[in-house]
Design a protein that fits this description.
The protein has 21 helices and 4 strands. By secondary structure, it is an all-alpha fold. It has a 4-stranded mixed beta sheet, with no helix packed on it.
Length: about 550
């Protein structure tokens, strides 16, 4: 029965991951042959996913394939529609989400082919980011938008990847802890509920997706190491290709994690599997960069001689510098991260001189409001994360005293994790290194491995409890603030809908809000400057000013 639960969870996780990856891959391949996005893209991806899971089910349930294929696929489908309803109930009120993320989605759905066309030549706002950034998140969203005609529904992929990371993590942890399925489920849930993924779930930011994808990649690495088959390797390749096209930094993160798996296979002399993985990793990287990532990696290189333009090369733009506290200027990246995660939580700001250190396990109500936004800059893993780090250090010290060889193995894993985190100079900002969230879970597993040591197990359980409270606080703060803001915005839109049409609108930075008014049935006349009238209304967190007659 336990294996059935574990394998069904695995198939459900593969369904969600492969569907997202296939949606991106199908759309990118069609872009390559000059075919614009249509509703067919999503259904082709769905067919690919169904076929993949059908054949994978044979490997895990050879005698009951139809039954468990149906259970896993129906579970994934039910979650899709539930999350679709949640996504559609909230407007994305983030700055980046309402600017270049949504603008890119709308342009692709309207026929723009990023492989061969540039928006900069058309004078489109924010074109430098839309044209040149990796855009797997926007591509999948555009494919769904082509089916539904409602852009907010396209945020569903945030939730699908969170759920996928839960199912795959549970399958991996259950394989490692066959007699502790309850602990595996708790760990998987907390892993999936990465604070960055939570507080970006109702926006079109992609850092939360990156965090979920990296957790999926680690889970698949564990499963491949323990009991590999061709379907797991194929899923690993799917995950690699999608992740590499999520953000520029993902290439470094994925590369270091691949090195970690290769090292583990080499040390344990699994040479046959090592050869297979090297082939899969190499092929996946080439396909991800040269074919599926033709834009931006190839197009950037051809035009600007750097695949990471505009963040690298000549005239590189530093998108972090303006938001970095001035007190960080004298610190190295390790000191910056330590100070950030042991300080009071704060949102991003261009006017921050210094951060405010606080005692671990403490928080203020003022801090919690900063988890209502998608880019919490200081203390971005939650108000209690500093306490989690203290407990992690305590567990490591005790483990070292109890069993040096076992602790050294875990330290090796932490070295790989830290290498993938601190390769980014902005490791102090949680959304840029969402996989740092893996740290306490690796250490907690070490703590729980000491069956005979009650103290270290007790501290490990305490850390799990703190993690649970931390996630609950972030989740409540985020969804509560988003609910309030959305309620206010919907009230404004309803009032505009009932006003005499057309209204006069100035979109400031959020040009994609033209689509929001259109979807709400509000006719408007656009003006280039902020209008002056007695009836002027500024839409909540939307950078849009509207005058009614």
């Amino acid at each position: 029965m336990n294996d059935r639960i574990q394998n069904t969870s695995l198939l459900a996780g593969l369904s969600l991951l492969v569907f997202t990856a296939a949606t991106f891959a199908v759309t990118a391949l069609l872009f390559l042959v000059h075919v614009e996005i249509t509703a067919a893209n999503l259904f082709i991806a769905l067919a690919v996913t169904a076929a993949f899971v059908w054949f994978a089910a044979k490997a895990y349930f050879p005698d009951h394939r139809p039954l468990y294929f149906g259970i896993s696929f129906i579970t994934a489908s039910a979650l899709f529609f539930i999350f679709l309803a949640v996504s559609g109930s909230f407007y994305d009120l983030s700055y980046d989400g309402q600017t270049y993320h949504q603008e890119g989605i709308l342009r692709m759905a309207d026929g723009w082919n990023p492989f061969y066309q540039t928006l900069g030549e058309q004078g489109v706002p924010y074109a430098i980011w839309i044209d040149h950034y990796a855009k797997a998140g926007e591509t999948t969203a555009a494919a769904l938008y082509a089916v539904t005609g409602h852009i907010e529904l396209s945020k569903v992929f945030n939730f699908l990847l969170i759920a996928g990371s839960f199912f795959l993590s549970f399958a991996a942890l259950a394989a490692c802890l066959p007699k502790k399925r309850g602990l595996a489920a708790i760990f998987a849930l907390l892993l999936a509920c990465n604070p960055v993924s939570i507080y970006q779930s109702l926006s079109f930011y992609v850092d939360g997706q990156l965090g979920s994808l990296l957790i999926c990649l680690v889970a698949l690495s564990v499963l491949i190491y323990i009991r590999y088959n061709h379907y797991l390797i194929a899923a690993y390749s799917f995950c690699m290709m999608l992740t590499i096209n999520n953000k520029f930094t993902a290439i470094a993160y994925v590369g270091i994690m691949c090195i970690g798996l290769v090292a583990a296979l080499y040390i344990t002399q699994k040479h046959g599997l090592l050869k297979k993985m090297l082939i899969a990793m190499t092929a996946s990287t080439i396909i991800a960069v040269a074919i599926l990532g033709f834009n931006p990696y190839v197009t950037n290189t051809m035009k600007y001689h750097n695949p990471f333009y505009p963040l690298a090369g000549e005239d590189a733009k530093d998108v972090v510098a303006a938001f970095t506290p001035t007190s960080f200027m004298t610190m190295n990246r390790f000191e910056e991260a330590a100070v950030s995660y042991f300080s009071q939580s704060e949102g991003n700001s261009t006017k921050r001189d210094a951060t405010t250190l606080k005692l671990p396990f403490t928080f203020s109500m003022e801090e919690l409001k900063y988890y209502g936004i998608p880019d919490t800059a200081i203390g971005g893993f939650g108000p209690l994360f500093s306490g989690v780090l203290v407990l992690s250090l305590l567990i490591l010290i005790m483990a070292f005293l109890f069993n040096i060889p076992r602790t050294v193995v875990v330290l090796g894993l932490l070295v790989i994790l830290f290498a993938s985190v601190f390769i980014n100079y902005a490791a102090w900002w949680a959304r840029y290194v969402p996989h740092l969230w893996l740290l306490p879970f690796i250490i907690a597993l070490l703590g729980f491995s000491f069956e005979e040591r009650k103290v270290i197990r007790g501290v490990s359980w305490l850390m799990v409890a703190v993690l649970f409270v931390n996630v609950a606080m972030v989740s409540y703060s985020y969804f509560d603030l988003q609910s309030e803001s959305n309620k206010a915005l919907k009230g404004q839109l309803q009032a505009l809908k009932q006003a005499a049409q057309p209204v006069t609108a100035h979109f400031s930075y959020a040009f994609s809000n033209k689509n929001r008014l259109k979807e709400y049935g509000i006719e408007y006349t656009e003006v280039k400057e902020e209008p002056k009238c007695d009836t002027k209304m500024e839409l909540i967190d939307s950078g849009t000013f509207v005058c009614t007659r």
